[in-house]
User: Fold Exocyst complex component 5 from Callithrix jacchus.
Amino acid sequence: MLNEHSAKMFEPFVADEYIERLVWRTPGGGSRGGPEAFDPKRLLEEFVNHIQELQIMDERIQRKVEKLEQQCQKEAKEFAKKVQELQKSNQVAFQHFQELDEHISYVATKVCHLGDQLEGVNTPRQRAVEAQKLMKYFNEFLDGELKSDVFINSEKIKEAADIIQKLHLIAQELPFDRFSEVKSKIASKYHDLECQLIQEFTSAQRRGEISRMREVAAVLLHFKGYSHCVDVYIKQCQEGAYLRNDIFEDAAVLCQRVNKQVGDIFSNPETVLAKLIQNVFEIKLQSFVKEQLEECRKSDAEQYLKNLYDLYTRTSSLSSKLMEFNLGTDKQTFLSKLIKSIFISYLENYIEVETGYLKSRSAMILQRYYDSKNHQKRSIGTGGIQDLKERIRQRTNLPLGPSIDTHGETFLSQEVVVNLLQETKQAFERCHRLSDPSDLPRNAFRIFTILVEFLCIEHIDYALETGLAGIPSSDSRNANLYFLDVVQQANTIFHLFDKQFNDHLMPLISSSPKLSECLQKKKEIIEQMEMKLDTGIDRTLNCMIGQMKHILAAEQKKTDFKPEDENNVLIQYTNACVKVCAYVRKQVEKIKNSMDGKNVDTVLMELGVRFHRLIYEHLQQYSYSCMGGMLAICDVAEYRKCAKDFKIPMVLHLFDTLHALCNLLVVAPDNLKQVCSGEQLANLDKNILHSFVQLRADYRSARLARHFS
Assistant:
């Protein structure tokens, strides 16, 4: 049992569970209902024995713990002692290191001092040795015979170059009269070696030996012919480089390739690369640009402008790619000057060519359109007489001059407009790219004025003037009204014009004084066109009312509202009403299709008010029997239904009131006062009510007059 407890001694100890297990294992320790009877004495005996075993186990474990504690204390003392010994050893080692460091510093100081002394002795000695060698080589030039191996052996060209370069410098200081011959010989040898080195560099470049090129370039760096070496390198780099049809792409690939190797050859790679780029721009690109532009400069302005824009754009794109390379401090200015040097002669008069081409192209587009219509443009006068006519027309709305039959032609073309706007858009794009920043707003404004001249004045304004002249007088019969078609197309065109103004012109002038000038010009054009559109719409509405008058005069009979047989009226409304409503619905639909936004409501309201006034005055011309009054009410109900198509509350209200007034034509005399005081008629002037009551055929009867008074 103790062994079993020892095996489980490290498990968590729970007293209740432990006693429970002990009871169940003890015979007679179960409940009274179990297989064995409950024996308390036996269970007590088992408890006592178990307690004794636990006490023995506790004593044993306690002795073991005390032993382990004593051992731990002993080992701790030994470890502390060992650590103290290690600390002492570390201190001794640290002291030794300090001493060694001081000794090393002392030795190093002595060595440096000794080195300085040796250098002080050796440097003059080396200079003396070098001077002696140079004097020896100089003597050979004096004697006229070069015997030294360094001058004879071609493999020692590097050493020979170093010597001759120094001799050349010395010779520069010698008096010419005494040493002219030797100076000449040294200069000749200097030149020969320089040529040999350049030839060697050229050969190495053709063989692709970068290391040899680097060695030769380093030697030539101190020679006057170093720049010639760079020129040779640049020339050979370009051999076979322009094989594609795209010279700009070839140039970019060439510079990319050279940029990767130039640092491995020259000590000043950024200078060499910049010189290569300058050579490419000033020779290759400039000759290519000249070839492309000169052939069409005088003969084809359109192609010239397209080529100029394309070449300038591609050159600028190439410049942007080259900005990635190291070209020195101010590479932006360097590349800008190169571009300017190529295009300066073309950009100086660019805007003159642009505006001249745009004017001729715009005039041709318009003329081609009018020729396709077999139309000869009328001359729209300007000056005092025309201004006087315009003021009279604005104030009186009278047609001045004979009416022109346009045969339904508006003389507005979206195709023409799109072509004009496309040409102007391209002009704006070229202007943005090719203009100097200081000239950009002014140049953009010049292009805008050309657009205004040809699109707004020569096309839209001319169409409005022609449309106004084509509006018939208000008393014309069966007049065809085409001005609303002009309004519709002019509205669409002006939206396109406004979009180009915002999308292409505004970015070019937004931060300049030209912005206010452009906005003012645009405002004047809008006001001028709106004035003519308003005049045309007003006269068109008058013509519509005139047409309705003709319909009513032709179709409305007096017997319609005062039939001979009151009991045999079979129609719901008169023929005049049917035709007028059909005509009005057609015109309302046309107005809705021709305009947009609030303009539709404004024009429909004006037409509705005039339509109401016409019907009101028309009804005042007749006398109404009882059945005729009912028919008049039916007509007005139909007019009111037609007025609903306007979708203008005010117009509908006018016809509702008119319908209520017509009820006065049929109401019983006893109910007249009640009807007049109704919601719709209560606020009307009594004279208006009286005028409608007077239209009744029975008005003169004493009974009716008495009731209304």
Summary: The two ends are 135 Å apart (CA to CA). The first helix runs from residue 2 to 7. Residues 1-9, 382-388, 397-402 have pLDDT under 50 and may be disordered.
